[in-house]
Design goal:
Elements: E1 7-9, E2 15-23, E3 29-36, H1 39-52, H2 67-78, H3 84-102, H4 112-123, H5 130-150, H6 175-185, H7 191-202, H8 206-211, E4 217-218, E5 223-226, E6 229-234, E7 244-249, E8 258-261, H9 264-273, H10 292-306, H11 313-326, H12 331-338, H13 343-350, H14 355-367
Antiparallel strand pairs: 1-2, 2-3, 4-5, 5-8, 6-7
Helix pairs in contact: 2-3, 2-5, 3-5, 7-9, 7-11, 12-13
Length: 370
Amino acid sequence: MRKGENIFKRKDGRWEARYIKNYELSGKIKYGFCYGKTYKEAKEKVTKCKAALISGKPMPSGTRHRLAFYCDEWLRLSKSKVRESTYIKYETVINKHIKPKLGGCFPAAVTTGVVDDFSKELLGADGLSVKSVRDILVVLHGVLKYTAANFPGIVSVVQINYPKESRKEMRVLSREEQERFVKYLLTDTDACKFGVLLMLLTGMRIEELCALRWSNINLHEQTIRITATLQRLRDTSAEGECRTRVVTGAPKSDTSARTIPMTDHAVDLCRRADVNNAAAYILTGTEIFMEPRALQYRIEKYTRECGLEGVHAHTLRHTFATRAVEVGFEIKSLSEVLGHATTTITLERYVHSSMELKRSNMDKLAAAGL
């Protein structure tokens, strides 16, 4: 005979009280059991067990939606707040990683331990990089934060432990390599070679260069205006099909929309390459664009023919930043030229001190008697 909430009398005469102890990643309920000689004894035991559980861990009464539902809600609300490329990134992370592994959970089951296991599985079995896992956890944190704020009481307090990323030394062209590469680009120069050289001389991002038109270059004021980016993104309107499309959109951030002053050398190169068509793209000299993937292939071809290894578009940006620091470029100004939100990003990610610069600074100490 059953009496009370999940408390019933067994065939052996004892009373059994069942309570929700935990949830599996699939969302399946894991029950705990208490036994007593009387209904009262079983009731007292189960009450103590429930009280002993971590606050928020049991699923509150009336909660039926699983985490996948809240992922979709968070994603829907994010669509109007972020750039299209960012939204597509969020959607990919949720559909490819979060929902397959955690989507079946009830929010209350997503504890710190569950998130740690999720992180370890992404790093281990899935073989993702630390940066990729950190990006996935950032999205998960956004979903959980949204859920806690808009649906109080259905999610546990979760401490997300982000895996630590060992800092890798970014590839930067040495002065000799840079001179060799510049000499190559100036030989039989065409529109694409000129564009790559301009990227090295200004630190532009590859998506910014692909969107750059001659209308963005002011030879009189010796400036370049960064007003757009060009990317190939997944086509979210193509239901059930994996299609992509090229999108010209706003710069990466508010600080990425900027004006870059040019050196006299860069201005001279622009004058020689000018096609007298404001609507023409820098990389092609026509009104037909070149997308980032095609440009990356060109850069690989150029560097291979120069005998350079491990060089891609971002290497040129890092090289520009490093040369700027070596000649004493003021960091705040450099940060603005690169389009960074803070100088911290510039210092931590884009400034690479060469051995020549380290030796020069050590010589300054020697001159001071140290």
